[in-house]
Amino acid sequence: MNEILCVTHKYPPMIGGMEQQSFELIKGLSNHYKTHVIAYKNGENKVLWFGSLKSRIQAVLKENPNIKLIHLNDGSMGIACLWLRKQTNIPVIVTYHGLDITFPLDFFQQKLIPKLSEFAGAICVSQSTRNECLQRGFDKEKTFTVKNGVDSNIADIPFDRGIIEKLRHNFEVDVTGKHILVTLGRPVKRKGFSWFLKNVMPSFNPDICLLMIGPMKTEKTFFEKALQAMPDKFNNNVQLMLGSPSDTQDVEEQLKKQDNVFHLGSLQYEDLLQVLSLADLFIMPNIHVPGDIEGFGLVALEASMRGTFVLASGIEGITDAVVDRQNGYLLPSENADAWIDTVHELLSDKEKLKILSEKGKEFTRRNYSWDIMVNEYKTIFDRIIDG
Fold first, then answer.
1. 308: closest CA among 274, 345, 336, 262?
2. DSSP sequence for 52-63
3. pLDDT digit string (tens) for 167-223?
4. What sign does the CA torsion over 143, 191, 213, 161 have?
5. Where do the DSSP E strands lie in the chain?
6. 281: which strand partners?
7. At 219, phi and psi to the nearest 5?
């Protein structure tokens, strides 16, 4: 059995799409390789963790001389481990998720990206991300696309109508007799939440409500206030790098104006799944933001697995998660009329929508599993290990 080393700074118990992907990948690879893992654990000082990373990797390689391949979980790990190119002959593969290849800093694009392209291979979570790599000079023979998976077990958790009472009791949100739309995620510009609130929601009658789920801080930190005083380009780059909620202010303003939009904040995972099942439609109204792309669209797969039909902007990596007319509809980004008409059309025929939702659920179950993802990684790893 070949030996590999996986190095990741996105790993449980931290919660998020990249953390889940990294965990499922390493767990699956362990069935095929003797797998050594260096992972950042929540609670550690991240600066110190990165500072000691080189010595940790060197120690593992010294203790395990039969390691044949090193996998790094994203582009920032690739930058932190550029030294591996010259200090070891072991092939290194990096997974790219989107922003870790498009980040619009001149030094990053001109000096660091060319060095990242020298690693033995690149695995991209979507064709859109792969195209971004190829545009930056990556070798097409060593640059692959492997779509993320989704936990198919969430499809089998029964729907509990008690979530309706929980929404009323905990959030003072009464969805009785309403058509329900749901969004999920942090309020960053590319998600298009404020665009949807401004341009689409005002056209709906009060019987169509939108439930927004995800973290949203209303108070700015001292650092965030200081950033606002900086030049726009610097401010935007720092916000992209830190994943700051750049759409918060616009979303807050719209929430004050609209009576049929409710922001629930972060939910416990069990409640999140129930709200996804309660919804008639899951909404991903992404817009194009220079330098910041949606690398994939895992939340769309989670909604689909809960039996909810997806409406998503047909841009960037979303098109690898949502296949038009299969597990959702892809709509033109920032075309309000298309979004309004499609929502009205689907909500006007709930029987048809139910059929579409079940069809989408089965399509997602067949085509997006962690096992499929792991097997595709294994094929690439074996190819590179065998030279």
1. 274
2. THHHHHHHHHHH
3. 999 999 999 999 999 999 889 899 999 999 999 999 999 999 999 998 876 655 543
4. negative
5. 3-8, 34-39, 67-72, 92-96, 121-124, 143-145, 179-184, 208-213, 261-265, 281-284, 309-313, 328-331
6. 181, 309
7. -100, 130
Amino acid, single-letter form, for residue 94: V
Tell me which DSSP letter residue 368 carries. -
d(CA 70, CA 3): 9
Q: CA-to-CA distance for 110 and 324, rounded, in angstroms?
A: 36
pLDDT tens-place string over residues 333-369: 999 999 999 999 999 999 999 999 999 999 999 999 9
Helix, strand, coil tally for the chain in percent (to 5): 50, 15, 35
Q: What are phi and psi of 271, to 5 degrees?
A: -70, -35
Rounded Cα gap, residues 17 and 185, in angstroms: 11
The CATH fold assigned to 152-367 is Rossmann fold (3.40.50)
CATH number of 3-149+369-385: 3.40.50.2000
Query: What is the C-alpha to C-alpha distance for residues 78 and 223, in angstroms, rounded to an integer?
Result: 27
CATH 3.40.50.2000 in the chain, residue ranges: 3-149+369-385, 152-367
Task: Report helix, strand or coil for 217.
Answer: coil
HSE toward the beta carbon, residue 271, CA cutoff 13 A: 16
* Alpha-carbon radius of gyration of the chain: 22
CA distances to 66, 87, 93 from 71, in Å: 15, 16, 5
CA distances from 38 to 6, 60, 71, 94, 148 (A): 6, 9, 10, 15, 21
Q: What is the pTM of this model?
A: 0.86
For residues 257 and 271, give the distance between their C-alpha atoms in angstroms, rounded to a whole number: 27
In 3D space, the residue among 113, 116, 76, 72 whose CA is nearest the CA of residue 94 turns out to be 72
